[in-house]
Design a protein that fits this description.
The chain is α/β, with parallel strands linked by helices. Helices cover about 35% and strands about 20% of the residues. Strands 5-4-1-6-8-7-9 form a 7-stranded mixed β-sheet, sandwiched between helices. A two-stranded antiparallel ribbon has the order 2-3. It is an enzyme of class 2 (transferase).
Length: about 240
């Protein structure tokens, strides 16, 4: 079975002084999270879409789902965790409890504030996760990457031709991800930036999926303006 996992646990602190988490801000006349959910909802391969959000926003999210989707039974809203990876683990625990986990259970995890992913990206994630066990959506780095270990002077300038910028979805065989995560030390968990790093730490391959430049994450106020422009382009 294949499950969509929408990560909506953030509070959007980098968006500035706003009254609600950024995933609930309006773009193109409706909350960002609805644009994102729609991209998953139209794909018939998903057994269930699992939205994970802060506990105080669960009822609000459920109401959004009920008002905007004809078959809201396809979407479940549950509480996220204290970290990104704990949020993903909450989704796996839900799947294990309700459906059971086997070697073929796939989760496609995606930022709720990346509403411009495509059907092709989702399809590639499902296919590569089934074939390879783990995959990450990326685009080639367009700018030179500068490393500064001390945050004051340049330590290294890596070869840009082998550098990529990570996006989402990131997709996995859920049982394997759970096993690897539970095998991490507390020190290893502290250095995690995303779920793919769990596989990398444990020496497991993560296949690359070609992303899109417009598959942006809405993080800053400027991104909202860009998103409004992209939405208008989609509507034409």
């Amino acid at each position: 079975m294949v499950f969509g996992v929408i990560l909506a646990g953030g509070i959007g602190s980098r968006m500035g002084n706003v009254e609600k988490p950024k995933q609930y801000l309006n773009v193109g006349g409706k909350p960002i999270i609805l644009h994102t959910l729609e991209k998953f909802y139209v794909n018939s391969k998903f057994e269930k879409l699992i939205v994970l959000c802060p506990s105080q926003w669960i009822n609000h999210t459920k109401n959004l789902v009920k008002k905007n989707f004809n078959d809201d039974s396809k979407i479940v809203v549950i509480e996220g965790g204290s970290t990104r990876n704990e949020t993903i683990m909450n989704s796996i625990r839900y799947i294990e409890k309700e459906y059971g986990l086997d070697d073929d259970t796939i989760i496609v995890t995606h930022d709720s504030v990346r509403p411009f992913l495509t059907y092709r990206i989702i399809e590639d994630n499902i296919r590569y996760a089934q074939e390879y066990g783990a995959c990450d959506t990326v685009i080639p780095a367009s700018d030179t990457i500068v490393e500064s270990v001390g945050h004051e002077v340049i330590s290294n300038i890596p070869d840009r031709s082998v550098m990529y910028q990570g996006q989402t979805p990131q997709s996995f065989k859920a049982k394997k991800l759970k096993e690897l995560y539970e095998g991490l030390t507390e020190e290893e968990k502290e250095i995690l930036t995303d779920a793919c790093k769990i596989f990398v730490i444990k020496g497991q391959d993560v296949h690359l999926v070609e992303g899109e430049v417009f598959n942006i994450k809405i993080t800053y106020p400027y991104d909202l303006r860009v998103a409004e422009t992209l939405i208008k382009g989609e509507d034409k």
